[in-house]
Each structure stands twice: as structure tokens, then as C-alpha cells.
Automatic annotation (TrEMBL):
<protein>
    <submittedName>
        <fullName>Predicted ATPase</fullName>
    </submittedName>
</protein>
<dbReference type="InterPro" id="IPR027417">
    <property type="entry name" value="P-loop_NTPase"/>
</dbReference>
<dbReference type="InterPro" id="IPR041664">
    <property type="entry name" value="AAA_16"/>
</dbReference>
<dbReference type="Pfam" id="PF13191">
    <property type="entry name" value="AAA_16"/>
</dbReference>
<feature type="domain" description="Orc1-like AAA ATPase">
    <location>
        <begin position="49"/>
        <end position="108"/>
    </location>
</feature>
Length: 376
């Protein structure tokens, strides 16, 4: 359609009217009310229990259901469970009869059809999804969810925030978007167990609980016992408590024991690239992490370098000295790394300490060696 408009040398209002008419006669399969890619849907359904995010869900629900406007970006690496968390929060809010939820999940489509979206003010988009006129009606109890936002979504979001009074917007993204009034809500991996836990304590750990659920889904006879408990705990640690990685690891246990996977990851961390199953692949998982690393600025890269090369747990002063940064600068850059979910903040008693996720270290080494990320 863009090529045809170019061939006809249409510009300005004529071009917009032409494209709008085209979408009305040949609508996008994901369109609603003639708007391509609008994708107004209910929150997506997920199989399996909601594990380890109950506290975050309660906090988000409380923040969003206050009278004050809220623009919250749920930020974290791919596979950490941002969409699942936001879906659960949306369902809780939907149960409150006076609230409505508008779920928009295709931001790539927004970016590719931005000229057409200019015909429809964001406030009009909301009225189509919510059944309210956002300029005259009460939009204070309409939650707009924008799942998978990126830099290309900022223009749409900025206009939405400008036009809609008292917005309640919930965004999922890999990094903060820098929007007006944006509250960044970082989501890190699930807590991982220590190896000194007894069996009964191990089953209370959220990473172990999620891994066991996936293991029993593919191998119903699997039981956590004294002879495999250490391997299960180590597998959770090696996979960083990252929900998507735990699901993939469980899928790989159909023909392997947890101990065999642990041995493989310790000897050859990059072997995860060869993991493939119906739930995904290690190649795509690491490629997503490599993409997140590529978005970092030079100072964040410098701070991340010693954590990746030496491993272990670092204090802020130690990391700043290794990266040759002033402590004040190191605090700012470390905060971003933690917010983006690339670095784990170990909140033990005493001085805060930080460690790079194992899978991020593997992705970082792959990026430095010139590995080409898999095509999506």
C-alpha cells in the first residue's frame, strides 16, 4: 500500500485518506474497527501455575487501582515473565466490575502503520477498545496494557499520554522508555536456591517449584529426592531462575537427567545454544540476551565487563574500581543494569553485592566472539 501511494505521488492528507480507505476495504487480519494491528484482546492465557511473582502482582495491582494516574513500565530481560505477570495483574483488575482492560500486543504493527495511526488519535483508539469517549467519559478506570514496547512505540505512547486524562498504562519492555511520568518496575529472575538447603526447604524455592512443575509435565514420574536434589538446585542456579530457561531446561530432561544437563552447562556453557524443543530454543534465548546487551551504552558495557570476565559476586566499589569508574557513576550505571535484569542484586545483610546472570555471561562471551544472533 505504501508503494502504491508512492507511485501515485500522494502526500499529506491525500495519502492519509488513501491509506485509511485501503484499510477499510482490505483490513489487516489483526485489525479492529479498521485500525491495522490494533489487536484489542483479552489478556493472554497461560498454562501452569503462577509461581514466585505474587508480591510483585499485589504491588502492581495496588499501584494501578489508585486514583492517581500511573504509567508503569515492567522492565526485564526476555523470558523473565513480564507478560505473564502483567496478564495476571490484568485479570485481577478485570474482576473488579468497574474496571476495563485494553490489551495491545503488537507494537511492531504500530510502528509499521504509524502514518495510519495518526488518523486516529490515541484517545480515539482507547474509546474503541473501552467503549468510552476518552475526552468526555471517565477513563480513570480503564487500564491500557502495551505488551512488548520498544523505542519505536515511544511516539505513540507519548501522544497517548498527552491526550488521555488520568491514564493508567501498563507497559512491558526490555529497558526503560524514558516516557513522561514513567515509573519503572524492574522484574528480575526468580530467586535461586543455595546448595545447603534441606529437601523440604528446597521445595519452597520459587525456581525449584517452577522447574519441578515443568519437569513433571514432561516426565510425570519425576520426583525430587535426596539423590537428585543438588542437581535440581544447581540447574536452577545455572539457568538463573529465568522462567523461560527453566521451562526449556525441563523440556531437555525428557532424555537426560538434571545432573547430565548440569555437567554439560558447567563444562560447555555455550551448549545451551543447541537446546531445542517445542517450547523454544537456547539459541533464541541467548540471542535475545545479546540484543539486550547491544542496547547498553559504553559506560554500562565497561561496568559489565569485569563482572562477565571474572564472575563471582562484587561490591559496588569493587566493580567501579575494576571498570575504572567513579563510584557515583558506577551507582547510576549499575542501577540500569539491575533494572534491565542483566545483573542480580544480592540483598544479603551488609553491603549490597552484585553478580551477572550466568546466561548473560554466556551471551556476552558469544557476542564478543562474533557470534551472529539467530534470526527471529
Amino acid at each position: 500500500m505504501r508503494l502504491l501511494a508512492n507511485g501515485l505521488q500522494l502526500v499529506g492528507p491525500q495519502r492519509k485518506a488513501f491509506e485509511a480507505a485501503a484499510y477499510e476495504t482490505a483490513p489487516d487480519p489483526t485489525a479492529r474497527d479498521g485500525i491495522p494491528g490494533a489487536g484489542w484482546t483479552s489478556p493472554p492465557a497461560f498454562s501452569g501455575p503462577f509461581i514466585g511473582r505474587e508480591a510483585e502482582a499485589a504491588i502492581l495491582t495496588e499501584l494501578l487501582t489508585t486514583d492517581a494516574e500511573q504509567v508503569i513500565s515492567v522492565v526485564g530481560v526476555a523470558g523473565v515473565g513480564k507478560t505473564r505477570l502483567v496478564s495476571e495483574v490484568s485479570k485481577v483488575i478485570l474482576r473488579q466490575s468497574d474496571w476495563r482492560v485494553v490489551w495491545l500486543s503488537s507494537h511492531e504493527t504500530i510502528a509499521s502503520h504509524m502514518d495510519t495511526y495518526e488518523l486516529y488519535a490515541p484517545s480515539k483508539l482507547l474509546s474503541l477498545g473501552s467503549g468510552e469517549d476518552s475526552r468526555s467519559g471517565d477513563m480513570s478506570k480503564v487500564l491500557v496494557v502495551l505488551d512488548g514496547a520498544s523505542g519505536g512505540s515511544a511516539r505513540f505512547l507519548t501522544e497517548l499520554l498527552r491526550q488521555v486524562p488520568r491514564p493508567h498504562v501498563l507497559i512491558t519492555a526490555r529497558a526503560p522508555l524514558g516516557l513522561p511520568r514513567e515509573l519503572v518496575f524492574p522484574v528480575g529472575p526468580l530467586a535461586v536456591p543455595t546448595l545447603d538447603k534441606e529437601l523440604k526447604d528446597l521445595t519452597a524455592n520459587p525456581s525449584v517449584r517452577l522447574l519441578l512443575w515443568h519437569l513433571r509435565r514432561v516426565s510425570p514420574w519425576f520426583q525430587l529426592r535426596d539423590d537428585n536434589a543438588v542437581a535440581v538446585a544447581r540447574l536452577c542456579w545455572l539457568l538463573d531462575g529465568l522462567p523461560r530457561a527453566l521451562e526449556l531446561g525441563a523440556a531437555m530432561c525428557t532424555m537426560r537427567s538434571p545432573q547430565r544437563l548440569v555437567d554439560q552447562l558447567i563444562d560447555q556453557p555455550h551448549a545451551i545454544r543447541d537446546w531445542r524443543s517445542s517450547v523454544g530454543s537456547g539459541e533464541l534465548l541467548l540471542s535475545s540476551l545479546e540484543e539486550s546487551l547491544s542496547l547498553l551504552r559504553g559506560a554500562e558495557q565497561a561496568l559489565l565487563e569485569p563482572l562477565a570476565s571474572s564472575g563471582g559476586v562484587w561490591s559496588l566499589d569493587e566493580a567501579a574500581a575494576a571498570a575504572e569508574l567513579a563510584c557515583a557513576d558506577a551507582i547510576e550505571h549499575m542501577e540500569l543494569l539491575v533494572r534491565c535484569g542483566l545483573v542480580r542484586h544480592n540483598r544479603a545483610v551488609g553491603e549490597p553485592r552484585f553478580s551477572l546472570l550466568n546466561l548473560v555471561r554466556t551471551a556476552h562471551c558469544g557476542a564478543r566472539s562474533g557470534h551472529t544472533p539467530a534470526r527471529r
